[in-house]
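BUG: 3D viewer hangs when loading the predicted structure for this chain

Environment: internal workstation, default settings.
Expected: structure renders.
Actual: progress bar stalls at 90%.

Input used:
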Amino acid sequence: MVKSKVKKKEKVKKSKGARKEPESLKKIASVYPKLKTYGLAIVTLIIAYYGYIIRMKTAKLKYFIDPDTFYHFEIFREAVKHGIPSYFSRANPPTGIKLGGSLGLYVIPAKVYSLIFSHLGYTELEFFKMWTPLVGAITIVGIYLLGRKLHSDWAGFWAAAFLAFSYANYSKTYSGNARGEAPFLMFFVFALVAMTYYLDEKADWKNLSRSWKKILWGALFVILSWLFMMSWQGSEFGLGVLLVFMGLYPILLFVFGKMEELKRFAYEFYPLMLIVLLGALPLTGIPLIGYRSFLIFALEVYLAIAALTAIMLFGERIGLNYSDKKHRFGTVLAIGVLGFAGAYLYFGPDLWKFLAGAYQSNPLYQTVAELAKPNWAYIKNVFSIHYVRGAGQDGMLYVFSIVGFLILLSRISWKLYRGDVTGYKEVFLAVYYGAATYFLWTAVRFSFQASGAVILLAGVFLGEIIVAIERMEETLGTKAMFAVVLILLFIPLPVIAARDMGTLAKAQASAEAVPKSWQDTLLWLKNNSNPLDSATSWWDYGYWIESSLLSDRRASTDGGHAYDRRYILAKFFSHSGDKGEVDFEAWGLNYLIAWQSDIFKFNAISYLGGAITYGEYRGNPMFMPVGPQYGSTIVYDNKTKTYYVQVSYGGRVYQYIPDTIIDMGTGSVYQNKQPNVPYVLYKYPGNWGVLAYDKIAFSNFVQLAFNYLNPKNITESMKLRSNFVPVKMENGVNTYRFRPFAVYKIDLLVNGTPSNGTWRQVYSPFLAMKLPVGNHTFRIYISAFGRDVKNATLIFEAYRNGTLVKRETLAENLYINHLHETPITVSMDIPNATNYRMVLIQKGPVGVLDGPVKVDGKEVNPSFPIAPGRSGDIDLRAAFRKDYNVTFALRAMVTYYVTPNGRDIYKKDFYLEPHQDIIAYIPIKELSVRAGDNRISAHVSVPSDVFSNYIEKLKQKYGDNFVVYRKRLEPVFITEKAYVIWNGS
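Structure tokens produced before the viewer hung:
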């Protein structure tokens, strides 16, 4: 009876489960598998195409949006011409730079262009504008394939849909941003796809003909790994993820006793990774891959993992106890502790400095926005679905990824609990997401690298929900119906993201990133300066200066080179007078550009220049616009005779009384008696103005950018304007021609003797008068900017309608200390002429390098071609404006900064004092050169103590409170150079 009852119940249950399914659900059930297999793939291709269209919206702009892309375009063009580029002349004058890093970033698109797109009629510029959008679209397809392999079709689909319209991904794949992150992610994703196919494919290694698929996928993984390593200097991230996965997964297999799976993974994956690492090493010598030291480190890690795996596989043979989880885990833990101790002994403190360049590890990096630590507001902005006026509103993608990660961890934990850890896919996803999250929260620059993992896990979350429905104990039609309904509920998410990202892209494409004033300035420079000239502004604009699309001139510093000069340029901009003088002639500088909008970057400039402390950098704005349009009012209290700025905030009214008020309309200066803030107010017509922090209120930047002088020290302003002559003023972008030596004042003796007579000023940069004809006594004030006048000859010349009518030597063996300048008194017989000039003859540098530098046949760093204590045969190409007799020499120079309050850069009272010192000239050869390019060869020997003796003196002077930032040993050419220091009438 019991048995019959049980059978009866079973029959009832069976009949319930076999209820008749409606025809509509049967139709859904028949279509659903095809939808997953083919429909999602087709929709993904459509999404990828639309993602490409959005990313191409900015291609219509004349210039690139991202400043670095100007440089990348120039090196891409070099790669098209030369295959693998090696030298770029327009950065770091006067030497240029030896190209390094991962040059595959340029070689790969150059080959794609040369082999395909050039034959389709595209110009270099047209192709370059479409390259990153194309890479972005291919990555969308790749993330679909990867999600499909690591989780499910649905995870891949949602990841692709989110990636297509994610700002984190869009930010590095739109047209006009061609940095290396985008091709890195593309090749990395496809390398992972190949890896999953390789690991999933079974093989019979005794019969290779039957294992061709596994061999093919393995070969693709190796090739794609090399490609992602070539594509970007930061691709160590991808290699690191693979190494962590390679180390962690075998440990899990071992601890939980899955020895056969461990053996298979080690035998299949380890040889592949070894081929990747060993094959990459030769590519660093080209250099298609730019990080040889990291590869060696990776090989050492690989060997450590291999050794640990060997112990795990064969340890029992030497008596280790692997009887249970505790003993196996203890073995791994003990070996891990010993390995870490060994690594620390091997690397020393450098073990903790491995990624120092990626973080805010020195004052310069402290000021780089990309290296700042992100907060939730930033994460929300880059990983949102909905955007309003370019700002992310929800951070939903990141929230989805966290949920997906938690689901992943719960699955791994459940498998561990059950002793089932054979699935490598969950472990890899966890490693990838963990590494990406770590770097994401370290610096904002890593948001794009993290986007692959974050969006993949967001796709896993939605995919998990749909897969859960598919696993329900229901009929296929019912499950398909639920899945379709759920999909329809989720569809608005990528639709909203696509709409908002399209709006954002359209807004980006509405105006050029290079302001019109800069365009006009740089195109003027291109048409009105010598091709060998160089210019500088703050480093952010260096790539604009170098671009063939704009001025096509050399730039003293830019976004990726001559970092040491950023400190020196900041020192110049943030100080005035003697404190702001630096030897710009050592850079070969001809033009300096000051932009008023740099007031918003001036906290960083002032800090790097040593004008303010770290505490002031963080807490005191250097400039604050004020006026009704900025929510404040400039008020003059007639009763107290006081100017102040009134601000209403939080229901309260604040009055800020600046120290000094300068009326830019009338030029008048007013001093408040009882200021309460350390600021100077520059007041403009229209009752608006700018508050400038007192320490930088009369700096060289203020005087040059705002075309104003220092009312508290007119002499300083006269000197500055004599050395920097305005040549073009373009809507806040002011261009000056730099003169190392210049006359800033001429006095005429009216009566009496030179020692006790009466003098009248007849010339200054702000007031020029005609020189009186006849024999007169003059007192000439010469400003030597950044370096002394030594053994010089001063010559006076008179011209009548362009013809020289008189040439007279006024002084010989002239010496003027640039920090303590004194005038010289001369008698001159002034002829009746149309114009006059004074010329200073003294030794100075001429020419620039115009090609790679080789020592003993090997291409070297042109600004440090040979090490102290070494000798060799040097060969280079140099360009000159005209014929010269020159001394070919190596100039030893050191850039360092002093830290009077200690070296802790995060202390509030930390500040620095930048210095650029020329230590010595090492003469090599006397020779004659001609205008244009010259091939120069010579044997060179460098004393071993050329730097060490000088640095030792610095140590004795400053103790530990100084940092040597860079040493240079530059090839230069010295000649008797004619400096025109004054023109008059």
